[in-house]
Design goal:
The chain has 122 residues and is mainly α. It contains seven helices and three strands.
Length: 122
């Protein structure tokens, strides 16, 4: 299973991403509510249906903020250029093995690779 982050979804909404479409068709894509919330902050075509679709995707286990804080310290994720949403995604994946992260964000990809949770997708 693969958690596609906001960068992957934005690319897909701008120009249909065949790799993501294939993973969706194969029922390999997971969602995190913070990704949906980030996408909700942007301009979406067919907004109501797009958000409803994203809300229906299977989700990863969501970590509590206190667990995210502990994970930041345990894995030395501070000063690595990632944000709180990124840290939430990482924590969710650490709670949901063998799920992997698909991102096009360079810093987040580097952290995910160092933790062994990066999906090697374009």
């Amino acid at each position: 299973m693969i958690l596609a982050d906001t960068t992957v979804w934005i690319d897909h909404f701008v120009s249909a991403d065949q790799d993501l479409a294939r993973q969706i068709a194969n029922r390999q894509i997971l969602m995190h509510p913070m990704v949906v919330a980030e996408l909700a902050l942007g301009s979406l075509r067919d907004r109501v249906n797009s958000l409803a679709y994203l809300d229906r995707l299977p989700t990863v286990r969501v970590a509590q903020l206190s667990d995210v804080r502990l994970m930041i310290e345990a894995h030395s994720l501070y000063s690595r250029g990632i944000g709180l949403t990124d840290a939430h995604l990482i924590a969710a994946l650490l709670l949901s093995p063998p799920a992997l992260l698909w991102t096009r964000d360079k810093r987040l990809r580097n952290v995910a690779e160092s933790l062994g949770i990066h999906a090697n997708l374009p």
